[in-house]
Write a structure and sequence with these properties.
The protein is mainly α. It has three helices and two strands; from the N terminus they run E-H-H-E-H.
Length: 68
């Protein structure tokens, strides 16, 4: 996935990557977006920025700020 082209990930993609149910994927998006709001970032309902999702779910991949 090209991080420069696809900036947001939705519930469908999270379901495919993690095996979570649709409801669980939306709860995860909501939780991650609440974290981002507390950090002062703007969010998009029903989507989360891909690098932040990847960092929080799978761990850092060497990128200090996860693209945000």
């Amino acid at each position: 996935m090209d991080k420069n082209k696809v900036r947001f990930i939705d519930a469908k993609e999270i379901m495919e990557l993690t095996g979570l149910s649709k409801a669980a994927a939306y709860r995860l998006i909501q939780q991650l977006n609440e974290e981002l709001v507390r950090k002062g970032y703007m969010t998009v309902r029903g989507r989360v920025i891909y690098p932040y999702f990847y960092e929080r779910f799978f761990g850092k991949d060497g990128d200090a700020d996860a693209g945000i």
